[in-house]
Amino acid sequence: QPSFGPANAPLTLAIFSDFECPVCREEAKEIREKAPVEFPKELRVVFTDFPLESIHPWARPAAIAGRCVFRQNAPAFWEYHDWIFEHQPEIKIDNLRAKVMDWAKSKPLDAAQLTQCMDARATELEADAEIAKGTKLQVDSTPTAFLNGRRLVGNVPWQNLSQIIKLELGLLKHPLK
Prior knowledge:
five-stranded mixed sheet, alpha+beta, about 50% helix
């Protein structure tokens, strides 16, 4: 599963996200910039694809492409993540493949392997499994996050999320009885 932060961090923020969701884009930018600085040892962030296909036509193919990138070079996934959110307004269903391949040219990826993976939809079952996981957890909008199991729906501004993380860390040190 794509993640950053220490694997043994006391807190895990699992985010169900959609690459075509503008609210997800804003939240992702803040979390990517601020979480590693403010909580370098305390927080692991896990990305889970949850494309809302009914309103976002290219979100599922973008999720499949992201899984292809991750499968080939796990650290490159985060470059893809940041790039696709940054370029979200320019991407359409009919230019997604070309834009991803153009992005991949300057990355440590095998272009032929990436093309084959995307064209064959080789990671579709992985994306389906992530969607099923979100559905089982009653995720119905993006972003939806779970901080050590506590549900956070919508874009929680970093200032608020930071406070929630600090409260959770405090509860780990001094559990309620």
